[in-house]
Prior knowledge:
Elements: H1 2-10, H2 37-46, H3 60-77, H4 88-99, H5 115-127, H6 131-154, H7 159-174, H8 187-205, H9 235-250, H10 252-270, H11 274-303, H12 305-311, H13 321-331, H14 336-365, H15 368-371, E1 376-377, E2 389-390, H16 392-408, H17 425-447, H18 452-467, H19 487-501, H20 508-540, E3 543-547, E4 550-554, H21 556-572, E5 579-582, H22 587-592, H23 610-622, E6 627-631, H24 649-658, E7 659-665, E8 682-687
Parallel strand pairs: 5-6
Antiparallel strand pairs: 1-2, 3-4, 6-8, 7-8
Helix pairs in contact: 3-7, 4-5, 6-7, 6-8, 6-19, 7-19, 7-20, 8-9, 8-10, 9-10, 9-11, 10-11, 10-18, 11-12, 14-16, 14-20, 17-18, 17-19, 18-19, 19-20
Amino acid sequence: MHEEAHxxxxxPGPPSPMRPFASSPxxxxxxxxxxxxxxxxRITYNRPSIVNTRINKRDLPWVGVIAVSFAIGLxxxxxxxxxxxxxxxxxxxxxxRLEQGEMLYSDVRHIYGPLSPYLNAALYRVFGxxxxxxxxxxxxxxxVILALTYWLGRKLMGPAATTAATLSVMWLCAFKQSGxxxxxxxxSALHGCTLGxxxxxxxxxxxxxxxxxxxxxxxxxxAPDRDGALTANSGYFVAAGIAAGxxxxxxxxxxxxxxxxxxxxxxxxxxxxxxxxxxxxxxxVFPALAIIVSVYAIIALRVGWSTLSRDSFLFLRSLPPExxxxxxxxxxFDQPVQSLIQMSVAAIRLILLAMVAAAxxxxxxxxxxxxxxxALPIMAEAGGRDSGAISAAQLWFLLVxxxxxxxxxxxxxxxxxxxxxxxxxxFILLALLIVTARQAKSEIDRWGTMSGHTLVVLIISFYAxxxxxxxxxxxxxxxxxxxxxxxxxxxxxxxxxxxxxGDRFRERKVRRAVQVIGIGLILAxxxxxxxxxxxxxxxxxxxxxxxxxxxxxxxxxxxxxxxEAIQFINRETKPGDPVAVLPEGTSLNFFTGxxxxxxxxxxxxxxxxxxxxxxxxxxxxxxxxxxxxxxNRPTPEFGASxxxxxxxxxxxxxxxxxxxxxxxxxxxxxxxxxxxxKTFFIKAYMRK
Length: 688
């Protein structure tokens, strides 16, 4: 027996691949013998930090911190979430039109899936048309997104790191002024984000993960089951398919990210049993397709296939050049070379920050080596060998040089380098996928299947990267759209810091110090962002617009113009009268109970071609519209800035020939104000 134990310890065995990202450790041969010291050392050098993936009482204080932060965020931003001009008017008024009997896509033009407007219309029907209904929808949905973010994070990380990721999502996404979750630019994006994360969580839930205490090192010495069964319950694939199908009915690109992730998860979960993979794929795809095909078939029968497929842009058919221009801008393909340079510099800055964390961790956790001036071991390689050593003097030089370069890069050159912490996210996710795929191959070669942890990293990373497809070269933490694409990326960004990078250090104290520094940097970013947003909300949004259908607190010039326009509409028209608002601002219709005579809620560039303008003119004539309001809404993001000059020329020429300007609303009431002027105004035109 002792001879056998000695033979097992002394045998070098097959080489173990380096594990720079957290994964399951090598399988220890089944034996009644206790683990030898040699085996324990090999496991220690090659396994990740042990994480208990079950949420338990230890999570309660961290969840409490998140809940308190969410409550504070709601308090400081209360009723300041929306912009009554840009997009939000559509989100307010469109469901009301559906609740009153109009048909989506035919009577009311819509460019996203049908789920969100019909959901909000149903809520209006039950609770009445009110901003409070939309606010409640946003608050509850935001809470669900944060809960899903925390749950997904805990599949990979401990409570502290997961809390840091969740707070990042909260303050970089949920409460961001331009693109918040409470009154979003599009509820379709908000619900698509939620359902996509729900599908991802269900796919992850199907994977069997070890449930161990942090002290139970031996629990991680087991490989996956010999039969390759990584899925605990394939029924989760059915539920994930339903969630992915509903995500497609919210926002097409978000549903696509969920669907292709589900296909990947099915293929990998059953591997190498192709029959099992096919079974899981069928359980995922069939409910998703059944929901998508049946709903769109019903709509196509009612409104016509041409209307559904062309006017809605749902299937990217006949996109006008203005929308192509807009999509290139938000994706970074308008200036791809500059976008790649900015991404590369952002990646370099993250590397410099990692070097700062590493140097600080080695100085803190290096122990006697630092005090005596001896060289310190840096990282562990396969089999426990050191990758190199560095002296304390070299560490101090590395620390100072890295910090200096980190702060100098953003101000170097004419290119605007600094666009947020997630600009390099596609590079990080690609690195995670490549390294984790290599780890999966190693596990398959050794065990015949990959570990549950490795599969979870692959699935979440793939979903995160797929979600960023539309902004792949310009992943900014600012902007209205990125808020709904970032949650999974934030989880993997935190994981990459804490485990992908932190777990590579051999010494336990150094490893722990680097992980704490990584979490601290993320929390420091949250601590800087949260009060800044709170100050902006309180200082900028100070003008309350109060109506029978709710209150919204806007910036002063916008709030004053909207309030004056509401008073004018109430004075000059009756409830139910047609009132047109161009190019945006149908919140005025919602607040006053006046009917929008146009098919479009928004007439920004790309929505009305020559035929569309003539149709809009006919609708204004047939509805006997007496009042038209034109808002000062410059639209340079579409490449055409001024309505009547750069786009909708025929429509505005007709308006000016048949209507006369009779009032200007806003701080500046000069009659010759033009679209694009700095001050905001709304100009009223009455039929001659």
